[in-house]
Amino acid sequence: HLATSLPLPSERDHLRPRIDLIAFMIDIKSKYSLKNVEASLAHVDASFFLGKVCFLVTGVGRVNYCSVEMNAIWKLGEVYCSPVLFCELELEGIRVATAQRLLRMLQICAGHVPGVSALSFSSLMRSSADE
């Protein structure tokens, strides 16, 4: 399910499936995109930041057109203890690889991968980024 911002409208709460992963998309070419994500973060329950949130940064192939500071994006990941994924949606190979990575994260967050929890997955993502 996609939403342009949070909070989600409450009138369909009873029909909404369980939320296992929230992927915030940030278009590196749009300051509005980052501001929208920052405003939406206030509506996410704190328990989701224990491995069930990630930030997906798009447009990274066009560094010359950046409107968003990379430090601001890294800080979001750090402050919210959530992985930051970078991709270029216009390149099919990268788009497919990113979709597969998000699907694997979703499987883990939904509890469909035995022996791996969303919390341990999040710490694995952070430790691999440090190397």
UniProtKB/TrEMBL annotation:
The keyword NAD does not apply. This is Centromere protein M. It is found in: Chromosome, Centromere; Nucleus. The keyword Transit peptide does not apply. InterPro entries: Centromere_Cenp-M, P-loop_NTPase. Keywords: Centromere, Chromosome, Nucleus. Transmembrane segments: none annotated. Its main location: nucleus. GO terms for cellular component: chromosome, centromeric region; nucleus. The lineage of its organism: Eukaryota, Metazoa, Chordata, Craniata, Vertebrata. PANTHER family: CENTROMERE PROTEIN M.
